[in-house]
Structures
1.
Amino acid sequence: ATVDRVVELRKEQEDTDKYLLAETSLKEKYTAFEAEARKRRGVNAWDLTKDAEKWWDAALKENAPTFSTQRAGVLYQRAARGMRLQSISSLSQYEEGQRVATRVDAASASIVATTNAVAANPTDESIKKGRDEIIQRVDIIAMTKGLDGYQRADLIAEKVGMLHKQVLAGLVNSDPLRAKNYYESNKKEIEGKDYAGIEDKLAIGVTKR
């Protein structure tokens, strides 16, 4: 019995060594994988969760020691599954954050492009279409970032106000009288703090004409 117990203890010790070595190896390999994964930004981070799942599937097959006792095998699998779930959850959150950032950046860039295009050719039709497009892009940002109604309204006021200011900046030189009429028609969508500066430029433009 004593000899059997010695053999049993030795097997348990060997299993413990195998367990610790395998766990350490798995953690080190995953740490290296995660470090590279978190370097992915924007659209490059899309499908990161799927890539992590594939990595874990392969890693657990490659890093699967053979234990002498069933108990050691169960403990190792339990620990490995815990690491897998935790890491995939973390990288999934990271991927979603990058998707949000990409969507917001794309919508913001679209707003700038629309504003510039309208200011370069400010017809009644282009202004109306541009304003509608800007509000649509703001809605994408608001939905993506989870903005409330007040925050959405503030962002619309900011972006639409910028559109009007850029249109006015061009018109005040090319057609001051139209600029004055445009300002009066759209003044309510421009921030009050900008009134004085715009009105000074309009006065100078009209005087020059």
2.
Amino acid sequence: FSVWQNIVLPLTVISFFSWYYLAETLFKKNFLVILSYLIWLILVFYDGSGYLFTRLGVPDTLAQLILLPLGFAFTFKYVFENKPRNFLTLNFLIALMLLMLHGPHYFYLLMAVFVYALFYAAVYFKDKNYKLILPRLLKVFLAELLVLVIVGILMELRSRTLSVTILEFNKLANATIAYDNFFKFSLIYKYAFFLLPIVFIFSRPRW
């Protein structure tokens, strides 16, 4: 990943555009777009002004600050704004890059789409666009899930990595798992953790 470290400045600019694109996708009013974007900047620079320049070349930060917001934005664009299937293809490619670059963030995106689809199916079944929106959410979820299936099959055929990993995981099934402590995080991160899902659920982009 030394290549990423050599292009940190362009990656920083891309991350700014990625999160602005997500904010613009989520909210109709410019005031909310700018406000949410400023909140994101505060959260990023809370760790120091050099955070992006020292961490953006690292796979997890690159996935978190560039690929993940683009994945959410492409999902909302395709599902709620009736964008062409190109956005579904873009979402597939983002999911593929996330899985190859940093697996946990791929599962963040996959589970977020799945949970959002369940929430929409349970709460907004009276919405006039229900029969249009829900199938699109399922298409996005299946496209992202297809990435995992394809990569898993290729890994298994090439080196049996998948089956070996599952067997080793089963051996550790009874092992003690160490959980991180939520209370060690600062107050601003705790607020962000609880408020962000509420923003996604109740903003209802473009509705």
3.
Amino acid sequence: YARGSRTRALELWGHARDMYPEHACRSGEAIGFLHELGLCDEIEALLDEADRRFPGRLATLRHRCEFSQWHGRWDDVLRWSAEWPKRAPSDTGAYVVGVEAAIRLGRFDDADKLLADARRINPDDLFVLIESARMAERRGDWEEAIEGWRRFVAFGGNQAGVVGEAVALGKLGRYDEAEALLIEARRRYGGEFAIWAAHAEIAEARGDW
């Protein structure tokens, strides 16, 4: 397909699906390929086939969540992600996916509850930490956001945590602390765009034109 022949790509896909049906319906690569071709009905049929052949398979549920995310079907994402913990109780990925869906739907109380559940399972999971900090930002709770971003960095997070903390400090008018943090971030991480963007945001907030 990368060479531009959609017809040939579909022909080869049909052959592969007929020859290896069990592998085809389990293949994440196949779903990605069909998504590139815009074949939504084919993807859903493939996922239904996977559920028939391999009931209860976690990867199929993940593929359903991903497919629904691609198409902005956030109610479906929330529904499928709610099934995920039944198959993998210790996997926080379900909650992170569910949080995004709940936020997209404006269901912030549900998002908070999902994050609380995720923190009970694995409070040090990086994805849980970053979503917790972002939720604090959405609520305008800048002190909590600062603590959230600090936890994210402490457990191995990248420059996003430093930038997040600096922006939160700026929201509280603690501009000198924010600037010092960003200067240190430039030394540590280099000239990342997000760091310079945060510098500009802080300068604008303090009226340093």
